[in-house]
Amino acid sequence: MSRESNSRSNHSAENSSSVHHVVHIDASFLSEVEGKMQELPRHLNRSAGRDSCCIFRVPQSLSKINEKAYHPLIVSIGPFHHREPDIQMIQEHKWRFLSDLLLRAESKRVVLKDFFEAVAPMEEEIRKSYSETLEIDGRDLIRMMVLDGCFIIELFCKVGRINPAERINPADCDDPLFTMAWVLPFLTRDLLRLENQIPYFVLRKLFDLSVGSGDNGPSLARLALGFFNYMVQRPVHVLENYYDKEGMHLLDLFRMTYIPNCPENPEKEKKRRKPSRFLHLIQCATKLDQAGVKFRPRKAHSILDIKFRNGLLEIPILTIDDFWSSLFLNFVAYEQCYRRSTEHFTTYANFMGCLINTPADAGLLGDRKIVENYFGTDEEVARFFNNVRKDVAFDIHKSYLSKVFEEVNEYYQNDWHVRWAGFRHTYFSTPWSFMSAAAAILLLLLTTIQSFYAVYQYYVPSKNK
């Protein structure tokens, strides 16, 4: 009996140890879950995957590498950073620029009320343009769009001096935005940050009301690109091709001007019967140089216009400074987030990241006049390109440089090119090595001639003998 009772007690103990608490599903629990299901997510709006959503919070995987590149420094545009106290310096200028724009619009009999009435019907479309649910009242959102949009338009008008009646150059007036040398570059950089945008259709509506392009007047795109050209200084005839274009916002419009006339083709790889064994990432610049690849700066209107032919890799000159590094990172972030965007800058980042893997690679491209380094050291340039392509989605088969990747790898893996390049580096890289090689060749030639005459005289004796 005792043994049986012990076994029963052990069995009950095992059962008791395996018993789990039962969760009671009651009406209040279901009501709470249904309430959560109906709530819109704050950090990812339902429209974030649609074509209309074009302004995003930069993913943490990208922002943690270089947070300063995505965060405005002196001016907040749009809802993402408008409450941050550290960037309120330009806020009072917005109201003053709004007054100036109203004076500019007097000839069209446009008053402040017209701005708000024009933008108010766009509220839902504006909200769908942002990846986050905007926890802001409708009236406050419309006021923000009007204030920020009018500030941008008037800024473009002042710098572009579109009105012949303007008596002075804005750069010569007493406005601190123009007289303090550091302000305008920082302001320009802030207007080209992904998180610091307002929809382009809002800007266009406000521009049409207040300025209007008309038959002789400049378009909004012309003023915008002219303003940003103070920092990049490209030929006007290049920008003229985009004066009638419209982007999703200012960052998208500016990015558009760099896209070469070789669009990506997602169906390209599907049409191939066999994938190429050479289509993969390339080696760094120093290894390619040792394999005989030559580097030369290319005269082109876009830094993306890279060409490779017969061992010559032509790359447009790239200026690495604070402005370009910030702009470049925001271009890549936009391509990673917006579903309708091509991945030209993402491809370029991976291509240049492959070339510039070490400080020696950066130094080599600097010596070839391809990279103009304003960072200070080659280490910083290499670090930048190593970071810019981290955690970035990239499909080499769909990239616009897929043919360049393929041809460079095919050239690099050719044994004849490698051996000939090794011979040149060994014997012709410096004048002293060339002289040594020439002396050795001459000595070998003389020795060969001497041996030939010795053998000749042995087999063909002299007639005098």
Structural write-up:
With 465 residues, the protein is mostly helical. The protein has 3 domains: 60-256, no CATH class; 275-419, no CATH class; 430-465. The protein has 22 helices and 5 strands. It has helices at residues 2-17, 27-38, 60-63, 91-104, 112-119, 123-128, 138-160, 176-179, 183-190, 200-210, 220-232, 236-239, 250-256, 268-271, 285-290, 322-337, 344-355, 359-367, 378-388, 402-412, 415-427, 431-459; strands at residues 294-298, 307-309, 312-316, 318-320, 371-373. A 3-stranded mixed β-sheet has the order 1-3-2, covered by helices on one side. Strands 4-5 form a two-stranded parallel ribbon. α7 (138-160) packs across α10 (200-210) and α18 crosses α19. The protein is elongated, with a radius of gyration of 33 Å. The N and C termini lie far apart (133 Å). Pfam families: DUF247. It comes from Rhodamnia argentea. This is UPF0481 protein At3g47200-like.
SSE layout:
Layout: H1 2-17, H2 27-38, H3 60-63, H4 91-104, H5 112-119, H6 123-128, H7 138-160, H8 176-179, H9 183-190, H10 200-210, H11 220-232, H12 236-239, H13 250-256, H14 268-271, H15 285-290, E1 294-298, E2 307-309, E3 312-316, E4 318-320, H16 322-337, H17 344-355, H18 359-367, E5 371-373, H19 378-388, H20 402-412, H21 415-427, H22 431-459
Parallel strand pairs: 1-3, 4-5
Antiparallel strand pairs: 2-3
Helix pairs in contact: 4-7, 5-10, 7-10, 7-11, 16-17, 17-19, 18-19
